[in-house]
Amino acid sequence: MSEDTLLLNPTVTNTDSGSSAEGGRALPSNVEAEAAFLGAVLIDNSVYEELPNPLRPEHFFVPAHRLIMERVLTMMERGATASPVTLKPYFEGNEHLEQLGGTTYLARLTSDGHGLLATRQLAEQIYDLALLRELVTVGRTLVSDALDTSETVEPLKQIETAEKALFDIAEGTNVGNAAKSFGMAAKEALKQAQRAMNSGRGLSGRTTGLPTIDEKTAGLHDSDLIILAGRPGMGKTSLVTNIAFNTAYEHLKQQRDGGPDSGGAPVAFFSLEMSADQLATRILSEQAEISSEDLRSGDIGGAAGFQRLSEASQRLADLPLYIDDTPALTIDGLLMRARRLKRKKDIGLVIVDYLQLLQGSARSKDNRVNEISEISRGLKTLAKDLGVPVIALSQLSRAVEQREDKKPQLSDLRESGSIEQDADMVWFIYRGEYYHNQVKPETPDDTSTEDAKLKYQQWQEKQLELAGKATLIVAKQRHGSTGNVRLHFQGEYTKFTSPAYRDYSDYGED
């Protein structure tokens, strides 16, 4: 059989149930290509390691080929050589191999070595045909579910399910989604540790652009759900907007200038509270160092201010930050939109502002606790499906205001304990300055008593001590310790920075 025949003539010889598509047509497969590829690997194990996208057992159509590939990978992980001779003991009496002639089939696979001439092409075709079979399965399910009206009809839910399945196929997670061996998982963990070591900053995840946070968390890790909560006025949206900009800008700089991965990534920002132009105004205010209020009113400091604004706008024109400000978004709708952005823009961070403004499915709307639970589970699922960190803002209950100590606690998370349960990290943003300003005494005059003057003086001293200081409380972290992270807040620019850039030795809030 010629190489062209192998690559261009997919055939099916397997007659297992499910090997035919609708109308009796055979499922896409090329049994000869699978056999030729396995023969090449058994002759020279190293050809598998040289593949740009290694095949997994689940990509093979013939059951016996799946078993052979699985055993080959197991032996290679142990550092052993996989050959017809070393594989033979594992397949004595195997029912699937018996259908192909028994263990002598292993030797036949290596009889001509033809697969060594086109190993990569064979692997690509095997993988592509596996994707086509998955598409057939999705199509069958979609048609079957659409025709079934015996249960509650939820076409939007069916669309979301179908889109998720298509996204999984595109990402290669449906084909080959078997459980990982410990060896494979350990290799991934080793890669993360190596990345942290190479970064020189202990950063194994996405950067927040704020060194004190990165030092505490080692970055934002793929598949993690991070809940950022705080009372109104604390700066939740400001902080998460800063993080979105920093992460996207690090990616932009790396794309422009090259060099090692600095932890940046394209960012998807789902804003259910503010419009896209409002968020853009915040970012431009921060970068041009013009207050948001002055920017909105047009009082930008004349030509010099306009020059700074123009330069900031040009510098950020290609910023990979994608803002979706669709109001009244459902959790299913958010999942669909995020998957599209992952597919089209390869986003590496998702931000949701904020969780309580999302809507659940029709099934959960009668119970707010159940609805919030569904939303938090959906966000965690999104993080795992896309393999990216997800930051979701959350409200806190009013119980904070009724305590003398205003620092938030996990029990203050509003409406559902599932938020804490589903989160990998829970952050609280706290600014003592905000609460201190609420108890400002009357400004003394010549008629004021000495006690009143002393009280005002003490208030002023405390106010100066707290001015511009903020604390990020890491109340939960699956991968590390909890504790406080110090930040600096410039209210006029809605900008958080790390105090490493300023001379702050004592925050007076720990």
Note the run of SSEs as H and E: HHHHHHHHHHHEHEHHHEHEHEHEHHEEE
Proportion of beta-strand residues:
5-15%
Q: Biggest sheet, open or closed, and with what strands and sense?
A: 9 strands, mixed
CATH class of the largest domain: Alpha Beta
Looking at CATH, the homologous superfamily of the largest domain is P-loop containing nucleotide triphosphate hydrolases
Shape: elongated
Architecture per CATH nomenclature, i.e. the level-2 architecture of the largest domain: 3-Layer(aba) Sandwich
Explain what you see.
- The chain is of the alpha/beta class and 510 residues long.
- The chain folds into two domains: 3-178, Orthogonal Bundle (DNAb Helicase, Chain A); 206-425, P-loop containing nucleotide triphosphate hydrolases (Rossmann fold, 3-Layer(aba) Sandwich).
- Helices cover 47% and strands 10% of the residues.
- It contains 20 helices and nine strands.
- Strands 3-2-4-5-1-6-7-8-9 form a nine-stranded mixed sheet, sandwiched between helices.
- Helix 17 links the parallel strand 4 (349-353) and strand 5 (390-394).
